Amino acid sequence: MNRRTLLTRMAAMAAACGTGNAALAAQTGAQLAAAQSPALKLLKLMDTDKSGKVSRAEFMSFMAAEFDRLDTNHDGELDVKELEQLEIRHHEGGHGR
Length: 97
Known about the structure:
Layout: H1 3-17, H2 22-34, H3 38-46, H4 56-70, H5 80-96
Helix pairs in contact: 1-3, 1-5, 2-3
């Protein structure tokens, strides 16, 4: 899988599933509606200081929160079952918005 495909899937996942952070979700809701590309949606979700760029710290913080949200059994690892739930949430969330 190339980087663009990965980022596109991450953007879709983030938009469909949310980040678990209600304040961030509320803040970026209107921005997401206006966003034109999955990459821009992803940037707006991760860019907490609103600089228009994503720092390594912002990226790692976002990914850590996503990992924790997906690790439903809290064992510090993602298994196939947990990753399959990601697909289900993505499809259900994508059709409902």
